[in-house]
Design brief:
The protein is mainly α. The chain has 3 domains: 126 residues, Rossmann fold (3-Layer(aba) Sandwich); 115 residues, Serine Threonine Protein Phosphatase 5, Tetratricopeptide repeat; 170 residues, DNA Cyclobutane Dipyrimidine Photolyase, subunit A, domain 3 (Orthogonal Bundle), CATH 1.10.579. The chain is 47% helix and 6% strand. The chain has a 5-stranded parallel beta sheet. The radius of gyration is 24 Å and the shape is globular. Bound molecules: flavin-adenine dinucleotide.
């Protein structure tokens, strides 16, 4: 049996890779990556600079890992809907194997490719692996997707069987001798018109394993307490690895679950619970593909969001005058990452204090986050705005000062990302306008662009009028 193993950017690893393992057991293996212009056209690549950097590094790591095992990554360029069926036919493969994607555009791509392959008598095997359980498999008694996270998580724990991660193959056969193709090289950032950001995490399977090891060596056992602290290194920072599949979700789940009994069972359970939030968002998008275009709650359709380009620019560039909001914005641009608590505060500020559509924030985050993921990012934004599934109620508005004081009590997070405030006493670090006159005058930092209390009241009035009262859905 001859198998084309099609790597598609969310499974850039050799460990726990079902299609690769199965292909290796069955005969000839042809590992392929297609540089589809959907992502690799320079105009498109410029819309995802941080993800592109991580992706290119992860691709180079995959190529080296496959070579070490005795195979070779075949890199081709062109639309995958054309190239994959054409090469499968030319190389006389018996099947094409890949991992399933949950996003609507990935599903449409697969539908088209599957139909073409089927027409040629070639199998198209889609393996599970992006999620712990197959999307669509965790259902209510009525057979529908859960609209609330907690019962979803309960049903998952009851019904889902998380398979053991597969070890990487010990070796792979060399490419069949009769293959021919127009070789494309993995592009450089430069060739895509992008500069390297040294502040980003390193891509690739080895770096992912090192991050996992570091997290399991200590932070996981204090996760429950530290996960909300923006000033501590208490979270795993594995989101980009999950996004690009340099670490499989099953490997992470199993490794974390093995920490039970290690001196922090509640912390381990809290961590696994977060992995289930990831699971929830993927199952949700599978069930409701239209969520990338519209709010989960129909009552929010047509919501009169404000149109304030200056406000948006101040938010995106970290010049709102609210230190923790600005720290989040600047961390995003510098590191391609934002702490989850800071994401929620920043998202609440954009949608509620500034009254701007969550979709503007969603697009900005998708552009700059290294872990930018359609399902999780959309769910995070809809959750914070209040229009999402199991969302924070629309009348819950984060107070950036109170949040800062609680989750960054000494201001270390703000000091790191907003150096203009580094010397400010902790008493005023989250509300510099409260500092005595001489101190305040010495700061090169803007006054708040809105008054939080007034903005909050205005949003509540608007939302109440539009949504027709508390709890409208
Ligand atoms: C507005 C907004 C946008 C977001 N956009 C994204 C995104 O594009 N990509 C992304 O991976 N996450 C997103 N999240 C979720 C969360 O902020 C990140 O997953 C988390 O901060 C990543 O850091 P970590 O790996 O150290 O997390 P940890 O705290 O170590 O958590 C471990 C893993 O659990 C998952 N997870 C944790 N929290 C959540 C959550 N609230 N929702 C879904 N999954 C979660 C992630 O896969 C994460 O890597 C967003 C949240 C918000 C509020």
């Amino acid at each position: 049996m001859r198998t084309m193993v099609w790597f598609r950017g969310k499974d850039l690893r050799v460990a726990d890779h079902g299609p690769l393992v199965e292909a290796a057991q069955a005969g000839d293996v042809i590992p392929v990556f297609c540089l589809d212009p959907f992502f690799f056209d320079p105009d498109r690549a410029r819309e995802l600079p941080h993800r592109m950097q991580f992706l290119l590094e992860s691709l180079a790591s995959l190529r080296a890992n496959l070579a070490r095992l005795g195979s070779r990554l075949v890199v081709v360029a062109g639309r995958s809907t054309e190239r994959i069926p054409e090469l499968a036919l030319r190389w006389r493969v018996d099947r094409v194997a890949a991992h399933r994607w949950v996003e609507p555009f990935g599903r449409e791509r697969d539908r088209r490719i599957g139909a073409q392959l089927e027409g040629e008598g070639i199998r198209f095997d889609l393996h599970e692996g992006e999620t712990l359980a197959p999307p669509g498999s965790i259902r209510t008694q009525g057979g529908t997707m859960f609209g609330v996270f907690t019962p979803f998580a309960r049903a998952f724990r009851r019904d889902a069987e998380v398979l053991d991660p597969l070890p990487a193959p010990k070796s792979l056969p060399p490419l069949p001798a009769d293959l021919s193709w127009e070789d494309a090289t993995i592009p450089t950032l430069d060739s895509l018109g992008l500069g390297r950001n040294p502040g980003l995490q390193l891509g690739g399977e080895k770096a992912a394993r090192q991050r996992l090891k570091a997290f399991l060596a200590g932070p996981i056992f204090a996760y429950g307490e530290n996960r909300n602290r923006m000033d501590r290194d208490g979270v795993s920072r594995l989101s980009a690895d999950l996004k690009f599949g340099t670490l499989s979700i099953r490997t992470l789940w199993r490794a974390a679950a093995d920490c039970f009994g290690g001196g922090g069972d509640e912390d381990v359970a809290a961590y696994l619970n977060e992995l289930l939030w990831r699971e929830f968002t993927h199952h949700l998008l599978w069930d409701r593909p239209e969520l990338l275009d519209r709010p989960y709650r129909a009552a929010w359709e047509g919501f009169p969001w404000a149109d304030d380009d200056l406000g948006f620019a101040a938010w995106a560039e970290g010049r709102t005058g609210y230190p923790v909001v600005d720290a989040a914005a600047r961390q995003l641009l510098a590191e391609g990452f934002v702490h989850n608590r800071a994401r929620m505060i920043a998202a609440s500020f954009l949608t509620k204090d500034l009254g701007l559509s969550y979709r503007r924030g969603e697009a900005h985050y998708l552009r700059w986050l290294t872990d930018g993921d359609w399902a999780q990012n959309n769910a995070g934004w809809q959750w914070t705005a209040g229009c999402g599934c199991d969302a924070s109620p629309w009348f819950r508005i984060f107070n950036p000062v109170a949040q800062g004081r609680r989750f960054d009590p000494d201001g270390a997070y703000v000091r790191r990302w907003v150096p203009e405030l580094a010397g400010l006493d902790a008493r005023w670090i989250h509300a510099p306008w409260e500092a005595p006159d001489p101190v305040r005058r010495g700061l090169d930092y803007p006054a708040p662009i809105v008054d939080h209390a007034a903005a909050r009241a205005a949003f509540l009035t608007l939302a109440k009028a539009y949504l027709g009262g508390v709890g409208a859905s």
